[in-house]
Amino acid sequence: MKAIDLRSDTVTLPSPEMREAIARAELGDDVFGDDPTVNRLQEAAAERLGKEAGLLVTSGTQGNLIAMLAHCRRGDEVIVGDLSHTVLYEVGGAWALGGLGLRTVRNDSRGRLDPAELRARIRPIDDHFPRTGLICLENTHNQCGGAVLGEEDLSAVRDVADRRKLPLHMDGARVFNAAVALGVPVARLAAYADSVTFCLSKGLGCPIGSVLCGTGEFIASARRYRKMLGGGMRQAGIIAAAGLYALDNMVDRLAEDHANARLAGEGLAQLPGVQLAPEPQTNLLYFTVEGRKLPEFVRKLGEAGVLCFDEGGRVRWVTHYGIERADIEDAVERTRAVLAAGA
Ligand SMILES: Cc1ncc(COP(=O)(O)O)c(C=O)c1O
After folding, report:
1. Which of 95, 147, 175, 240 is the most exposed place for a label (fewest CB within 10 A)?
2. What is the pTM (predicted TM-score) of this model?
């Protein structure tokens, strides 16, 4: 029985063509700035996002931490959504390594921050208070079901940031999914933020890496923090080659992942007790199953070859490169059988 791995879009393996690009990469020592493939990727990523410069980093977590460090001073607070990946799943790096506080604002069900609530969380200038140093947004929003922040949502937060003269960082781990879902160039979404991290290692199908983009001055500072965090890599062109291949070949196909998530949603919604939570907008799909113990249910799905996670009361399926329409149909049928068997 073939395993259908829906745990995450990080489980993707590089395609034969991507492996070929990796094998052919021209290399140099990137800590010396000598790796031509890394340099090409950083330029291509920055251009694609409409920013001056880019920096290849090891992961989305590292990119977000570097952004917070480069925008802020020790002791500052960073405003993040209460369901953001940064506050929930990035090991508290801002606190532990940056001396930065994370101050949360409620994310609504579509991953948005309410401008009035956001304004209220920004610290007044006062000797008693920490300084607010940065606002962060997440697009697409993982915990909010892969929700897309559109230009109206982004512009509302940009407006608050401008009025309070604060920089805005976008955790755009899946910002290409947002752009494809909206049918706009990614630069349109990136334009609302001063810096953006996007992941190569998720829907874009690369084995490793993320890129942080921003102004030339910001990226020069980010480069120093990357080195401090142990992220100065040497012949990193083998990673960058995959990234260059992905920017050219793996972006438009994200629409297939979105269609597969919708197909999964339609199939699952027909099954007894299954409730989508919420309807999928991109490649992330969350659902609940009434009257079942989810850890047990997810374990039974695993035995039936459908690999997924129980994410605190919801089951998560993620569609990605390597998962075809037929796999989704199969996964829904296997789920039907698991439910019928009374798991
Ligand atoms: C929204 C979001 N931001 C950041 C990250 C962190 O990326 P990485 O796993 O590369 O550290 C993830 C990972 O799933 C994510 O979903």
Report:
1. 95
2. 0.98
